[in-house]
Amino acid sequence: MSSPRPVRVLVLSGFGINCEAETAHAFRLAGAEPQVVHVNDLLERSEQLAQAQLLAFPGGFSFGDHLGAGRALANRLRARLAGPLERFIADGGLVLGICNGFQTMVRLGLLPAGRPGPQKVTLAHNACGTFYDGWVTLAADPSSPCVFTKGIDRLELPCRHGEGQLLGSAHVVAELESDALVPLRYVDPATGRPTQVWPLNPNGSTGGMAGLCDRSGRLFGLMPHPEAFLYRENHPAWRRRPPRRGEGLVLFENAVEACRRDGA
Fold this sequence. Notes:
Blueprint lengths: L7 E6 L6 H10 L3 E6 H6 L9 E4 L13 H20 L3 E5 L1 H9 L1 H4 L8 E3 L7 E9 L13 E8 L3 E3 L2 H9 L5 E3 L24 E3 L5 E4 L26 H15 L1
Parallel strand pairs: 1-2, 1-3, 3-4, 4-11
Antiparallel strand pairs: 5-8, 6-7, 6-9, 10-11
Helix pairs in contact: 3-4
């Protein structure tokens, strides 16, 4: 019996992206074969997309967050990669954006629409008025189509950002809620309820929204950093917690498993 085809993941790097090594390592731990590729190399050789099952936009400060976090990178990709990216998604490819990568996906129109196009929501400056670096508690929506969050109830992750306040018009927010396109929310760990209270919600996002997916569930972005909690020792209270692995790893394992199912 032949072994399953390896899951190939393209992890973007360059121009201020600074979490590509951790993101690639997370996918490697999850059983995939990640390849770190510079943005320029992908733009010059867009056929690399057709050879992968998943594209990852890691965190960082692409182009120094000039014009707004993720804006310059989104403009560059829209001008040079929109067609190949749309074909990649239409062929069943998965896309993950973390922090600055999520900001890029939003400004590229990939979330929540599922394809490059007009921006429908925004990630504004944190309501607290400053950059925040700390840990948050998240709850997953079991009714969401997001393949990355399947089977997750609650998890803790670190976050570090200055522009994470997810906002949209009343009409768009109502669509997000009715279609269950908010896979993760910031919650009060004592009650498990979504919160907009700082610092439990570090940016003041409407309804505690911490991430978005498209209707297919194959495109997903979030502000917290799952790649920064792959080992139990990553947690500041790891000596007082039960001996279990880092909670962020399951998001990557779910993605790899979804790729394997699609390729079966």
